[in-house]
Specification:
197 residues; mainly alpha; Tetracycline Repressor, domain 2; 10 helices
């Protein structure tokens, strides 16, 4: 009985977060009130606060779910690619595809507009780092398979992450096709330095 209850509570948390996602995407983090959250979930404040101590905690949980979804979607796509080179271009495309995620604006607002505790900063950093292991694994496989030079996979992970995050700021200046083209140029430039010839 207790196991089922825990599952129910976990599912309710996910349902609340997913129901609220569109609200945050439309209104932004700051303009979304607890009343809005209660209304969209058809729940009382007490019910929401039972599952989340604050709007901030709810939003952090939503970011976690969003990042897990991003990773799961990538893992489904990854099997389509045979080589490390194909995977790196595929990752770039996956990253660009996610730039249009309507929640991203609210996430940027939240990250730049909050005075956060060290604990929350650590939580945010752990969420940001979710893709790191995937980048590092793909580079390691490329080295193992002789596609890439013997570079530090850990260093290459940071470079790939920097490339992807840095180019993402173009979302406010250019259309997605142009951004995708630039991501591909970035991967091509990176591969010029690390690909085995």
């Amino acid at each position: 009985m207790e196991v089922k209850r825990r599952k129910d509570v976990a599912q309710i948390k996910k349902d609340i977060a997913r129901n609220t996602k569109e609200l945050f995407a439309q209104k932004g983090y700051g303009a979304t009130s607890m009343e809005d959250i209660c209304t969209i979930n058809n729940r009382s404040k007490g019910s929401i606060y039972y599952h989340f101590k604050s709007k901030e905690e709810l939003f952090m949980y939503l970011i976690k779910l969003n990042n897990e979804d991003w990773m799961n979607e990538w893992l489904e796509k990854e099997s389509r690619y045979k080589t490390t080179v194909e995977k790196l271009y595929g990752l770039a495309d996956h990253y660009v595809d996610d730039l249009a995620n309507p929640l991203n604006h609210a996430i940027n607002e939240f990250v730049s507009g909050q005075v956060v505790s060290k604990e929350m900063m650590d939580d945010m950093l752990s969420l940001i780092r979710i893709p790191y292991a995937t980048y590092e694994r793909i580079v390691s496989e490329g080295i193992r398979d002789g596609e890439l030079k013997q570079e530090s996979p850990h260093d290459m992970m940071h470079i790939i992450n920097g490339l992807f995050n840095g180019l993402s700021t173009l979302y406010y200046e250019k259309d997605l096709d142009e951004i995708r083209r630039l991501y591909h140029i970035g991967i091509t430039s990176l591969l010029a330095g690390i690909q085995q010839r």
